[in-house]
Design a protein that fits this description.
Layout (H helix, E strand, L loop, with lengths): L1 H19 L8 E3 L3 E8 L5 E9 L7 E6 L4 E5 L9 E8 L6 E11 L5 E11 L5 H4 L2 E3 L2 E3 L3 E8 L4 E9 L5 E8 L4 E6 L2 E2 L4 E8 L1 H4 L3 E11 L5 E11 L7 H6 L3 E3 L3 E8 L3 E10 L5 E8 L4 E5 L3 E2 L4 E9 L5 E11 L6 E11 L5
Parallel strand pairs: 2-8, 11-18, 20-27
Antiparallel strand pairs: 1-3, 3-6, 4-7, 5-6, 7-8, 9-10, 10-12, 12-16, 13-15, 13-17, 14-16, 17-18, 19-21, 21-25, 22-24, 22-26, 23-25, 26-27
């Protein structure tokens, strides 16, 4: 029986030199740490960096084949040459906080030739925002005058009374800027300057008063105004935006019972598929279910391609009428949705919207 066990024993002794010669040797990366907290980092302070040190605790040379960050804000650097057993190397993480205020958590994946193959490192911290400059706060340049926006947005206002809003400006020069009394604006807009002249590097306000009742319009409206200074490039042009709603005084319960009421048979219509250039119409029926006269103040579409026309603008209690909406598909392609706003003297529902939709296909399309 001894001869049957002799052959395996011989093979075992033949394999021993192969094991001891390093054929089964394996590299192994061991990091001193895998997470680093930068704490608070100043945005204006420039990039910050940290080195993750590691040791090759294996028996074969360690190679880092790829190191990749989870974000372009983080730039990794690493030991490029093979690391012998027992030797050390580094992976450096460089984080750029520019334009990145607030908390950050980033990862770096390290691909090696050890058994685990991919290892993850993490950096975190908090970027404190850099102090804003006048150039940041007033990005729009008009000569030496800097402003936040070239559009003065009055927001939502009513016809109850004139509304005043202040818009901040900044003199970025070393000379005095004087505002002229000349202002090119429609009659429902008035302008005052505080102060009337800006010293070098001084902030001030343009105070705009808007009389929505005098505008004689409802819904979203725009105007153009021009101001003038003592500069060579004296004209400063602005857009003025507002959304105007009719003002209704508080009503008693009895007054509300007597008020007009507008009720629509529907508020949406789908024209289906149309060819570019088609002109289609649809009508919406509305009824005055209240106990006093209903008045349609205005109907307004959000697109020049859509026209709305009420058949009547005054309805007695119980009376019905219609609003015809015409949609012109010229120069329109694909899915379309247009809105028409109805303004009435219904105190509980003074604005209502109609929606029309269509799929417009180009000429020759099937």
């Amino acid at each position: 029986m001894n001869r049957y066990f002799l052959l395996p024993a011989v093979f075992f002794f033949l394999l021993c030199p192969l094991v001891s010669s390093g054929v089964l040797a394996q590299a192994k990366i061991s990091f001193n740490e895998t997470l680093f907290d930068f704490g608070k980092v100043k945005e204006e302070g420039g990039p910050v960096e940290h080195e993750f040190a590691f040791t090759n605790t294996g028996t074969d040379s360690l190679v880092l084949s790829e190191v990749k960050a989870s974000c372009g804000c983080t730039t990794p650097q690493w030991s490029q040459e093979p690391i012998a057993p027992g030797e050390q190397g580094i992976v450096k993480a460089v984080y750029n906080p520019r334009n990145r205020p607030g908390v950050f958590n980033k990862s770096i994946s390290v691909t090696t030739n050890d058994e685990k193959s991919i290892h993850l490192l993490y950096i975190k911290g908090f970027v404190t925002p850099r102090p804003s400059t006048p150039e940041d706060d007033f990005p729009s340049v008009m000569g030496n005058l800097r402003v936040k926006y070239r559009t003065m947005n009055m927001g939502k206002i009513t016809t109850k009374e004139p509304v005043t809003r202040s818009f901040e400006v900044y003199n970025s020069s070393n000379a005095i800027i004087r505002f002229n009394n000349e202002v090119n604006a429609p009659s429902h807009i008035s302008i005052a300057f505080d102060p009337p002249e800006l010293l070098p590097l001084q902030k001030g306000n343009i105070n705009l008063t808007y009389d929505a009742e005098a505008k004689h319009d409802l819904g979203f409206v725009t105007d153009r105004i021009a101001l003038y200074t003592n500069e060579e490039d004296s004209a400063k042009e602005f857009s003025v935006m507002a959304t105007i709603e009719e003002y209704f005084a508080p009503l008693t319960k009895e007054d509300l019972q007597k008020a007009p009421r507008i009720v629509l048979d529907r508020t949406t219509h789908d024209f289906g598929t149309l060819n570019e250039g088609d002109v289609e119409k649809t009508s919406f029926i509305f009824t005055n279910t209240g106990r006093s006269e209903l008045k349609i103040r205005k109907t307004k579409a959000n697109c020049g391609c859509t026209v709305s026309q009420p058949e009547k603008t005054s309805l007695a209690p119980g009376e019905s009428s219609k609003i015809t909406v015409t949609f012109n598909t010229a120069d329109r392609k694909g899915r379309q949705q247009k809105l028409v706003t109805i303004f009435s003297n219904d105190p509980t529902n003074p604005t209502q919207q109609l929606s029309i939709t269509a799929q417009v296909r180009s000429d020759g399309a099937e």
